[in-house]
Write a structure and sequence with these properties.
This protein has 237 residues and is α+β, with helices and mostly antiparallel strands. The chain has helices spanning 20-28, 42-49, 81-96, 106-114, 123-126, 153-158, 209-212, 217-236; strands spanning 55-57, 101-104, 119-120, 144-148, 162-165, 172-173, 181-185, 191-195, 202-205.
Length: 237
């Protein structure tokens, strides 16, 4: 047994971080970003959300399956219960505030679980015929197509029915939550995009658009749409 530098009973300090590519993408669209630490009580989180104009839920570790009523299965990766709790609370509050929301990778899964949906804990084990959704390639590399549902927000935004995306995930939506509209599918049927039609702007994508900027105009369209929705909200409110 190797003793930790923090001591036998000590706990390492909480570290909050966000990949720079998210803030770079937002900056490229003319807005500024703010990192919300995970260790928030509900009232502090509400105060923060009332002072911003849009919200991104980014990528990260797996969501604990107890959040959607399941026991852990083989293939489940690292989980972060503190982050689960904060982000689920953030979704509830953001929807009440009608805050524009872009949910990316883990974020689309958090959105779905918050609203009552479930997940594949590990695609390759639960759907053996699926594509490889976590290939060993850089996030800048597009790896498969997504078919966009006609006459949806994302299809109108992209201006086409099929786009190429990158892929860096081993979990995905299994059962969509009530009210959550599926708007994009991978060739193997894995859900890649969703939206909440009754809200100002709530869109989720399973890929990483921040990873393919600045050479992917379809990725940039997602961040531009979030910023535009935030600007419109600020003007109206």
């Amino acid at each position: 047994m190797v003793a930790s530098a923090w001591g036998a009973a000590a706990k390492p300090p909480l570290v909050n971080y966000c990949h720079e590519s998210y803030s770079t993408a937002i900056k490229a669209c003319g807005a500024a970003s703010l990192l919300i630490p995970t260790d928030q009580d509900p009232s502090d989180l509400q105060n923060i959300l009332q002072r911003i104009d849009g919200l991104i839920l980014g990528g990260g570790v797996d969501i604990h399956p107890r959040r959607y009523g399941e026991m852990p299965l083989p293939g489940l990766g690292e989980v972060d219960d503190l982050r689960d709790r904060m982000e689920i609370s953030a979704v509830h509050q953001a929807l009440k505030l009608n805050l524009p929301l872009l949910a990316i990778c883990r974020g689309i899964q958090v959105l779905n679980v918050t609203l009552g949906g479930s997940l594949y804990q590990d695609i390759t084990r639960q759907q053996p015929e699926a594509l490889l959704h976590a290939p060993s390639v850089d996030k800048a590399v597009a790896t498969h197509t997504v078919a966009l549902t006609p006459e949806t927000c994302i299809q109108r935004l992209m201006g086409r029915r099929r786009i190429w995306v990158n892929s860096q995930h081993h979990q995905a939506i299994l059962k969509p939550a009530p009210g959550l509209r599926v708007t994009g599918l991978a060739p193997d049927g894995i859900i890649e995009a969703v939206e909440l039609p009754e809200h100002r702007f709530v869109m989720g994508v399973q890929w990483h658009p921040e990873g393919t900027l600045p050479n992917d105009r379809y990725a940039k369209k997602l961040f531009q749409a979030l910023v535009q929705a935030a600007d419109a909200r600020q003007t109206k409110d």
